[in-house]
Design goal:
Length: 177
């Protein structure tokens, strides 16, 4: 498995190919359904963005409550397809890295290619293991959403698989509709 930081990935995004396994380190932001809706509303109204979208990474995750002495609760991926209605707009706004689980719509794949982005999948059902890759966590927006608040996470060696690369190669191709 290739170890890569967000910065290295952004400068070499086109070198990663569908099916490749990586350990990713760097800053990522969590956002699920409710946060995505608010973010799109902010984009549409010209409001204050909760974080800088240019070259950012979004992890479709809603961490469980933090246990005493832990940095974060379990933080596994949620089904990415639920965010498909929002994803092209976020990619146009500068997001480059998406992390979740499951197949994406043709519109999202096309937008990944158009915006030279990448989609990784994290292993579902491994939320406790994935939380061990988080070295720092803080809520930065929409705290009222609880588990769906936007967190800024610093991760080290998060195990991921390239599901859709910047050329549109897609490990889920057989599932396209």
């Amino acid at each position: 498995m290739k170890k890569i930081t967000i910065g290295e990935l952004l400068s070499d995004i086109e070198t990663l190919k569908a099916g490749q396994r990586v350990f990713l380190s760097g800053t990522i932001y969590t956002a699920r359904d409710a946060a995505h809706k608010r973010i799109i509303d902010i984009l549409n109204s010209g409001g204050q963005r909760p974080f800088e979208f240019k070259n950012s990474a979004i992890y479709y995750c809603g961490p469980s409550p933090v246990k005493p002495g832990s940095i974060i609760g379990a933080c596994g991926p949620t089904t990415s397809a639920r965010m498909d209605v929002f994803t092209p707009r976020l990619l146009e706004a500068g997001v480059k890295i998406l992390i979740g689980k499951g197949a994406r719509s043709k519109e999202v794949v096309d937008s990944i290619v158009k915006n030279k982005a990448i989609y990784f999948v994290a292993t579902g059902g491994a939320a406790a293991l994935l939380s061990k890759t988080v070295v720092k966590a803080e809520i930065i927006a929409f705290e009222d959403l609880g588990a769906e608040a936007v967190y800024k996470l610093e991760v080290k060696d998060m195990p991921l698989i390239v599901a859709i690369d910047s050329e549109g190669n897609n490990v889920f191709r057989c599932m396209d509709t």
